[in-house]
Write a structure and sequence with these properties.
heterodimer; A: 600 residues; alpha/beta; Rossmann fold; 5 domains; five-stranded mixed beta sheet; four-stranded mixed beta sheet; 23 helices; 38% helix; globular; B: 148 residues; alpha+beta; Glutaredoxin
Chain lengths: 600, 148
């Protein structure tokens, strides 16, 4: 029966889990608790939390202090969880994580292979606190750094501490945060502004969303500390339009902080004012670029400007402005509490601390992971990520968003930090890691990114507006089988011009996906151009599937999975594929367990 | 509109409120806003065409956003888009004749772990397959053309 210990049940309500019904599980557990009428002092607390990162296995329910983590929980499991693990101390075996290498069930999140190698700093509170409840944050040392800064430190001391930590901007470019603050503080022009860049536009990256949704208070605290350090009284949080939950949770947190006197006028009697406003983005990728973002906050079209004068001197409305990324802000309170020296002892010499990556694509354990800088790609993809789905062959990992590059298998032992990634022809970007397997066509990937960038190019400068268009035309031709000798060289030439002459970071780095795929996968380009073949079987015009009659066992799996009814054949005899009906989705190839579906 | 001060920096916020309220930005509303904020109509037009969240045409009752971020893309989001096109006879950016559905493609919804992802209004649907897609659309009262 009940042991008398007070339990807390944490139900993950991040976007990934919500899509799998976690809110209903949360409500059900809440109702069960209310109905059970347990004595007030031992009544379990049911909390909805932000994203735990392991979205692949969601919805996730955790029980504290028993340290039980349940995965892929369904609504119908709620009664059993309540009966056995909340009212009693039993563990439901089937809902525990199954270790992929040993097959054992794992009770604690800490022992789970996905979490074992992680080190949660920026994500320290996510999944542990209810983002709507400021007391949860306060309980975990929240707003402690802010008090220390406001009442015990001078602005110079704060900046020194951040400099000592070696923290570099997590938005992608990796500019030293302390230096940025120091420069901004040195200008004697007021008002100054503090901006949070929450316009997370890189496809395949969602760490900022997760932080804003799951631990909004840490962003507010980080900005507040910066406001004090540089002498700013106003801050703006620019959030991407698509992130409605993040907008909601941040505004709830701002209101709560105002009520407690952490924001507003004369904060806790210190005589200092600081207020924060949310600006909702308009759905334009280029607005993630700092100067375009500022222009968007001012109520204009989000076009970047040339950065002869940096934003720290003349930013928002021509005034000194500090703009940092969400993840950078999340690290600030921790650095103040634990010290810059402690932070700089983590990671590598020039890239200190941790980085959050979103490990996605064709990898078994997809989700958000936070690891110390300097971890190798192999550890990230194989030990945390569990390797490629369906045990297919790894081809490449793409990092750094649309302007990043593809890293081939031969470089998997590479350390992940700002500088080594750049040397390999990719970049850190915001931390998206997209794993690609043998069924990913690298020419098509390059085309995808160029298409993305040409749509998102603001059109202000010619190299980017026209260069990307021409590159897209050439890549489209190659994928359709109209590629010509000389196309690769032409692409390389346009890439050179673009990176030399474009106005902003978006244009300068736009050639990266093309350059890196040509460098590492030139053979695939040549197969498309000269043999008119797509080795991965993705470019539809160049792909014909057929079933190898010698290998086909007639199991019928492909037939059942074909959305076009293009496969016929009797059980236990070889099947045939009707090319007239085939829509070339590749489902048959992906599902066949005998390798009988082949690309011609 | 009048809940915002007459400052240029609120332009985007006001336009978004109009979009949410009416489903699009009409010429009349832009003219009114131009007077209110004392901003040339041409500048508002350039805002309305620059930002993807704003639309000059009315949108359908249910807005389907199919994610075509990288993670969804390599997990066959293109096939999902093609299937919707076949079932509803509209292309991304268009609205069905009965005004029930609009389709848009978006660049990453940040739910890559459950790729391919589709959002209808504010509800997320993960790991969408052609078969699941039909059920979801029926749930929103879609008349689906099965006769392909």
């Amino acid at each position: 029966m009940r042991t008398g210990r007070k339990k807390t049940i944490l139900v993950c309500c991040g976007t990934g889990c919500l899509a799998n019904n976690s809110y209903h599980i949360y409500m059900k557990l809440k109702n069960l608790t209310a109905e059970a009428g347990i004595d007030a002092e031992v009544k379990p607390i049911i909390k909805s939390t932000g994203c735990n990162g392991f979205c692949e296995k969601g919805p996730i329910v955790k029980i504290i202090p028993d340290d039980i983590s349940y995965y892929r929980v369904k609504l119908q499991d709620a009664d059993e969880i309540f009966e056995k693990s909340v009212l009693r101390d039993e563990v439901i075996d089937r809902l525990l994580y199954k270790d992929m290498s040993t097959g054992n069930r794992v009770k604690s999140q800490k022992d789970n292979e996905f979490y074992r190698k992680q080190m949660k700093l920026a994500l320290r509170n996510i999944g542990e606190v209810d983002p709507a409840n400021i007391d949860d944050y306060l309980e975990r040392d929240g707003y402690k750094a802010f008090r220390k800064v406001f009442f015990e430190m001078t602005p110079q001391e704060v900046i020194k501490e951040i400099e000592k930590s070696g923290l570099r901007g997590r938005g992608g470019a990796g500019f030293p945060t302390g230096l940025k603050w120091k420069q901004c503080a040195s200008y004697d022009s007021f008002p100054k502004y503090v901006v949070c860049n929450g316009d997370e536009g890189d496809p395949g990256a969602f760490m900022d969303r997760s932080i804003m949704e799951g631990d909004p208070n840490t962003v507010i605290e980080g900005m507040l500390i910066c406001g004090y350090a540089i002498g700013a009284n106003h801050g703006f949080i620019y959030i991407r339009d698509e992130y409605s939950l993040a907008i909601k949770n941040i505004s709830v947190a701002i209101d709560a902080a105002k009520k407690r006197g952490f924001l507003g006028e004369n904060i806790l009697g210190s005589g200092i004012d600081f207020d924060l406003q949310i600006v909702r983005g308009g759905g334009a990728f280029v607005c993630g670029e700092s100067t375009a973002l500022m222009s968007s906050i001012e109520g204009k079209v989000g076009e970047p400007r040339a950065k002869y004068i940096r934003s720290v001197e003349k930013g928002l409305w021509g005034q000194p402005t500090i703009l940092n990324n969400v993840e950078t802000w999340a690290n600030i309170p921790l650095i103040i509490i634990k010290g810059g020296e402690w932070f700089s002892s983590i990671g590598t010499k020039n890239s200190t601390g941790t980085k959050v990556f979103s490990l996605v694509g064709k990898v078994k354990n997809t989700g958000l992971v936070e690891v110390p800088m300097g971890i190798t790609l192999k550890e990230l993809i194989y030990e945390i990520g569990g390797g490629v789905i369906g045990n297919k062959k790894f081809k490449a990992v793409q990092s750094g968003g649309p302007s990043g590059g593809c890293i081939p298998e031969s470089l998997l032992d590479m350390q992940v930090d700002f500088d080594t990634l750049k040397e390999s022809g990719s970049m850190m970007g915001s931390g998206g890691m997209i794993v690609m397997d043998e069924r990913t066509c690298m020419v098509e990937v390059a085309k995808y990114y160029v298409n993305f960038l040409s749509e998102e190019s603001c059109g202000k400068c010619t190299p980017c507006r026209e260069g990307l268009k021409r590159m897209l035309e050439i890549l489209n031709d190659i994928c359709k089988g109209h590629g010509q000798p000389g196309d690769i060289e032409m692409l390389e030439e346009i890439c050179d011009t673009l990176s030399e002459t474009a106005l902003c970071g978006l244009g300068k780095t736009a050639p990266n996906p093309v350059i890196s795929t040509i460098r590492h996968f030139r053979n695939e380009y040549e197969a498309h151009i000269f043999d008119k073949k797509c080795p991965a079987g993705i470019c539809k015009e160049l792909t014909k599937y057929f079933i190898d009659r010698d290998l086909c066992t007639g199991c019928g799996l492909c037939k059942r999975n074909c959305p076009a009814n293009a496969i016929s054949g009797n059980a236990k005899s070889a099947h045939t594929l009707d090319l007239e009906k085939c829509i070339k989705c590749g489902n048959c190839k992906d599902t066949c367990r005998f390798g009988a579906v082949k690309v011609e | 509109m009048h809940k915002y001060p007459k400052e240029q920096r609120y332009t985007l916020a006001i336009l978004q409120d109009i979009q949410r309220e009416y489903g699009y930005i009409s010429k009349e509303s832009m003219e009114k806003l131009s007077v209110y904020l004392d901003i040339p109509l041409s500048r508002l037009y350039s805002m309305a065409t620059f930002y993807k969240a704003l639309s000059l045409q009315p949108k359908g009752q249910n807005i389907i956003k199919v994610c075509d971020g990288t993670a969804c893309h390599i997990r066959s989001s293109v096939t999902i888009i093609e299937e919707i096109e076949k079932l509803l006879h509209i292309k991304p950016g268009e609205t069905t004749m009965d005004g029930l559905f609009s389709i848009e493609t978006v660049n990453c919804l940040g739910s890559c772990a459950i790729a391919p992802v589709m959002v209808i209004n504010e509800t997320y649907h993960g790991k969408v397959t052609p078969i699941l897609l039909r059920e979801i659309l029926k749930g929103y009262g879609g008349t689906i053309d099965e006769d392909r």
